Amino acid sequence: MLTEVDRDGDGCISLEEFYAIGSAFAPPARDGELRDAFDFFDSDRDGKITAEELLNVFKTIGDARCTLEDCQRMIRGVNRNGDGFVCFEDFSRMMEQQQR
Known about the structure:
Strand content: under 5%
Distance between the termini: 24 Å
Largest sheet: 2 strands, antiparallel
Number of strands: 2
CATH topology: Recoverin, domain 1
Structural class: mainly alpha
Shape: globular
Number of domains: 1
């Protein structure tokens, strides 16, 4: 699966490739589907995606080279309020941008 996500083959997941992971859930037809996609990343169900949770997803899909620092960079690229997490609003915005 890593090779499917790592489009440029550099062994790391870029922000654009991270967006592609979110869009792999297909454009959500309903808010519930978007919430389910968000919950896939938000493993502790606290309403935010942390860099650690994101790293766990990458490990699950077989990307052993992705580091915590990579995940923190991806979070910063999506996070709009600067709290260091991806909230549902940030995630929704990212998914909406992917649909364009």
